Structure prediction request, 553 residues.
Amino acid sequence: MSARRIYFVVSILVLAALPWLIATPYWRGILVLCAMNVLLALSLNLVLGYTGQLNLGQSAFFGIGAYVSTVLIKSYGWNFWLAALVAVGAAGLLGLALAAFAVRLRGHYLAIASLGFAVITYQVLVNWEKVTQGVRGIYGIMPPVASTPALFYLVAGIAVLVYVLIDNLVRSPIGETLRAIREDEVSAASLGINAALWKAFAFGIGAAIAGVAGCFYPGFVGTLVPDAFNIIESFTMLAMVIVGGMGTMVGPVVGAIVLTFLPELLRGFGELRLMIYGLALTLVVLFMPGGMVQAWMALRARMR
Amino acid sequence: MMLQAKGISKSFGGVRAVQNVSIAVPANSIFALIGPNGAGKSTLLNLLSGLYQPDAGSLHFEEQNLIGLPAHRRVRLGMARTFQKIRLFKQLTLLENVLAGFHIHHDTPFWKYLVHGNTGRFREEARELLAFVGLEARSGERAGALPYGKQRMLEIARALATRPRLFMLDEPAAGLNAAEVEFLLQRLEEIGRRGATVIVVEHNMDLVMSVAHRVFVMDHGEPLFEGTPREVQSNPAVIAAYLGGEFAS
Prediction:
């Protein structure tokens, strides 16, 4: 317990120091991106890692958070926080709506259904030009706070809060319920667990958290185009969760950090960049099947 | 009657797995379902527990009509079960397996857990249940790492966590050695003594004959005979079903 506290305090101190250690505007921007990716990885991990549902629609909820908040601000003149609140609610409700249809599906079928949802959402963003401006995009979006370090503190602070809340949730009896569903749905039902209800719960919360990340993305980039929420983004989130270690709290955080910085660090390799990135991903999945966190724990156990 | 089924049937495609079966299980009894392989015993148990819905017939638990009620809702009425093919949460520890069994007894809204995390509720009772099946020393191990016989006992502890008044076990002695069967028998009697009604599907005749108050025999999906263990043992139709038609006369 005290070790957990120490890790927590050290993490907060490192987060506080980061914008001072990294002074170039470009890398400070990467820090903000990284905090958003941590939120997205945490959101997917609740559904995939703890509840065992392969949801490939997470990019859609990210996009819904971004578009709902931006349209409310730009077209209707709403205040950022109020718009964000509605956007997160909208993402969460759509997550529940998808779950209402999808919870009876399992494995590949659920993956395809959620992927379909992501494709439809993307098409709506592209084609509903009256509201979303389609591929022309929305320009001149202001972040809720002026400086990049402030934006980093804000998003990272929210990520820490979300981490603590999910950590509490998965260590509570609800965590036991979700893991029971992940392990064996029939068995879970034999203990009185309504699997459909709890899967919808995980979907809804996961979608809302992805929506939170979506609220900060447009202001950070300054422009909003549908391509940012292409289904490829769902797979990037999936890679973060798997590379880090799904079903653990630290894993997706590590995965998000590694997969945000790795492509940036590889920029020096020019055209070889994506090849090296792909190779590194493949190697991690091949040789660390439980993800980096589990590999690290196995290594530490062997050292003792 | 604690549980009453009247004329229930279930077919899969063209196969009539259970045909026109009526059973009445009195409260505080140990009720055994026996019959040769393929007799429909497991299907009947799946119908009782809600894993399947019957094609025809009525089904009542005390006064409650069970038709159309899904498995997870029946647990809240006080019905629990184990599985013939063990279905533990293999990646979770023994303690976590049993704790998951307390699901229906939690009444805290979820947002309180967001703030408080684990309250440690039911932990003591879960340990007692592990002790009841002789597994308290291994509570931190992964369930999947347990030997087969111990996995069966863990499944019993997990189901008991729902605090059932009607406990249904599907071949609990399958794959157990003699000492383990002896322990199981003793535990079943203890569960009965503590007030639960027990329905047990079993192949192990020694166990059935020493533990059951009533025995219901099925063959080819149909009821064959019902009586006390002694009556079952001496019934020619039952002997014929087990040994084959040529011994009947």
